[in-house]
Amino acid sequence: GVELRSLGNTPDEFRQDMLSNLYYRRGTTVESASAQDAYETLALTVRDRLAERRARTAAAQYESNPRWVYYLSAEYLLGPQLEQNLLYSGTSEAAHKALEACGFKPEEIAALDVEPGLGNGGLGRLAACLLDSLATLDIPAVGYGIRYDLGIFRQEFQDGRQIERPDDWAFQGDPWEFPAPDDVQTVGFYGHVDERDGRKVWQPGEVVLGEPSHLLVPGYGTTTVNIVRLWRARAHQASFDLTRFSAGQYAEAVQDAVRAENISKVLYPDDSTAAGRELRLKQQYFLVSCSLRDIVRRFRLRNSDWDAFGSKTAIQLNDTHPVLAIPELMRLLVDEEGLDWDHAWSLVRQTFNYTCHTLLPEALETWPVDMLGRLLPRHLEIIYLINAGLLEEVRSRFPGDIDRVRRMSLIQETPERLVRMANLAVTGTTMTNGVAELHTQLLTSTVLRDFHDLWPSRFANVTNGVSPRRFVRLASPGISALISSGLGHDRWLTDLSLLSGLEALTGDASFREQWREVKRSAKAALGLGDPGALMDVMIKRFHEYKRQQLKLLHVITLYQRIKAGGYDGVPRTVLFGGKAAPAYQAAKNIIHLINAVAAAVNADPAAAGLLRVAFPANYNITLAEHIIPAADLSEQISMAGKEASGTGNMKLTLNGALTIGTLDGANIEIRDRVGADNFFLFGLDAPAALALRSGPYQPRDHYHADDELRAALDAIRSGAFGGVGHDVAASLLDRDEYLTLADYRSYVDAQAGVDAAWRDQDHWTTMSILNTARAGFFSSDRTVTDYLDRIWHATPVRVEG
Ligand code: 26Q
């Protein structure tokens, strides 16, 4: 074959290539280049290096005809691409030199890199971490997703209230993206089902095109470069009505085309509360239909026998969002390929696995039977057929247990007819996994208990993890350099268990001193509050179950102690970051109230030097990478039994923050590893919380019994921080669904323990180092290894360097 000339990576070669990209691809010159020109040119030059590796990867993977891992996810929070791609391609230094030689400041150019905000929170970021680890472990894998025009909204504050602005992230064009118009797919919607020669044929009433583009997903320390393929909805040219246009009806002429392209227009900004809009269902089917066609196309490149499909293909369903893939693959195999039902069903079950990310019953996705039947008539028939098989199995295993049949059915009958997507997911897959030990335990004993009774071996736990490249190396260059110098190597970046070597260094006073200094300079760089103060961080989506309101009650209590005089707490900066779903009024009220409290505290000279509240707007991956290295204290204070895992908890621990937390999600596993002495535990555990919730819980009892709690709530309620306080206080006093008041005293006392620990700076530093040293388990490399062993059974394909 034809050999590719390799691009050189010396500063000189890199600069030459930047120049030619500036001239030939950007069409400008050094003299007239803007910062944006420099950014785009740099991006292209770095991308070229990875594109070479991509070509080698694709060839090697194709050659070995392996079992492929396909990750199907409605969300990816990839984070900014430039610095990652510089690091992974080993061109950081050459790039800095080239930029400086042309008169640009590298930091200013890096600031032009816009993160693709194609996700809401934990689930989307987990998808990105898993792709990073798949590539790093040389696993042949493709991520499939949607290329939303508008990502997660940009958050602004107006008078303390959250305002949502559209995030037109690709407005300047996205230099990282490779369009692949050749692989366009056609997606059907609506219509009816015919029967021809004994075979069902779906005749869609409407078609939309799915146009793919991909981003490169390089592995670290390896040649492998995988891709994430994102679909964008395009109107078929036939949907443009030239007759109407000629008659001057301009809006009407394009209305069908606009409707079609709306499918990938905007990411739903919901985080774990279902919103049953038809457009969302269309998005889900659009993703599934395009991706499965692509997967089948790729299978056929090397295979001709459907029998091999299940052994060559592992498709992971990221929550229920892509679960329509199960009836869609049945339709392709039975209706289009002519396989018999049982054969197709066995291939489908072999192919798919499902990850559940929630415990909140209200977040379990359902779709109205009517809506699904209208949009996807053949899929609804197939769901009914799958259901018949399921219910037959349930009846034969549990004769006479009618209530169990009703609970397990794929169709909820009353009060309205709904398709239960989680039930479909468990039924149509080999394995279902939860994302932390407690989560998997609760899943199999509560929301999916009936399914666990029927098929116990279909359930496994795979505890989440995070990318050490993104969340240690890129986010914290300072701590990373110190870790590498302490360990004498940087192999920890691909084998995070090696962090355990830091334990021995806790006895080294000079290492402790350097560690303290690195944390301090991260705080100084963040520029929010005195770098000498304890940086107390709560960063995550706003949700009542996560209990930002509990942290706020603590802040008010500290403030009231300050106002009372004789305050003996340590200086703190309390930092909040996060967005609320636009329709989630209770969460937005909490944001508003935090901003009001921040304004009062920060303006009060009495609090100066003791307490400061920071709430930078628009928390995203870019901002997370600035905040995480600066954190001393990690707030993981959800009501026990509600947070499936959490992943911010892992990022913060790895960066040497100590956790104050409940026994919820992965906090339990973090505490088990870092040691109870190095973790601030408080609050009810999951069984106690469940018991309290099941009885006649009276939040007002806590209000009456605790003077400080009462004072804090009275201040809120009386409007000391504005009118919004009334609603927040009422919700806590009247209902307190998430047991905030029940856990208040235990939390505030645990925070006094934090202060005491902070006063002994040297001991705090030891605990901080131990947190990092013992958190190696929480690498997403380990998570992917667990998925490979327990679920995917795929093996690496090494690519020549
Ligand atoms: C559903 C229907 C309609 C519109 C939106 C949605 C929707 C969107 C996003 C539902 C859920 C999500 C995201 C959920 C999520 O991020 N869950 C988190 O997943 C993390 C990774 O496993 C866990 O660590 C967190 O505990 C969990 O909350």
Describe the structure.
The chain starts with 10 loop residues before the first helix and ends in a 9-residue tail after the last helix. With 801 residues, it is an alpha/beta fold. Helix content is 48%, strand content 14%. The model has no long low-confidence stretch (mean pLDDT 97). The protein is built from 33 helices and 25 strands. It folds into 3 domains: 1-64 and 86-110, no CATH class; 65-80 and 115-463 and 787-792, 3-Layer(aba) Sandwich (Rossmann fold), CATH 3.40.50.2000; 522-774, 3-Layer(aba) Sandwich (Rossmann fold). Strands 1, 4, 7, 8, 11, 12, 13, 14, 18 and 19 form a 10-stranded mixed sheet that branches. A 6-stranded parallel sheet has the order 22-21-20-23-24-25, with helices on both faces. Strands 15-17-16 form a 3-stranded antiparallel sheet. The relative contact order is 0.10. α20 (477-487) runs antiparallel to α21 (509-526). The structure holds ligand 26Q. Ligand 26Q is lined by residues 120-123, 126, 268, 270-272, 274-275, 280, 357, 363, 365, 435, 464, 643-647, 665. The modification N6-(pyridoxal phosphate)lysine is found at residue 651. GO terms for molecular function: glycogen phosphorylase activity; pyridoxal phosphate binding. Phosphorylase is an important allosteric enzyme in carbohydrate metabolism. Enzymes from different sources differ in their regulatory mechanisms and in their natural substrates. However, all known phosphorylases share catalytic and structural properties. This is Alpha-1,4 glucan phosphorylase. It comes from Paractinoplanes atraurantiacus.
